[in-house]
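It is time I had a proper look at our fold encoding. Can you supply me with one protein entry, sequence and fold together? It will help me judge whether the discrete encoding reads sensibly. Leave the record below and I will have a look:
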Amino acid sequence: MIGVLLAGVVFMNVAVLRLNIRLDQVGRDRVRLRADNAQLASQLSSAQAAARIQALAQKKLGVQPALAQETTYLNLNK
């Protein structure tokens, strides 16, 4: 009888340990996903700002993007 009770206690302790390990893993995943979301939100904000600035420049100032043929690069190393 005592053996069965002890086996039950051991089984419960193992189950609790497994749950704690899983909770720890889920917690790490949650932190990683929040960091990923923050990075993606920052990238989205930057992309939206650039597009908005370009649209305003085109609309209010009549600025158009330069064509590849109109672009010149200078070598500043010489």
User: Anything to note?
Assistant: The chain has a mean pLDDT of 93. The radius of gyration is 30 Å. The helical segments are 2-61.
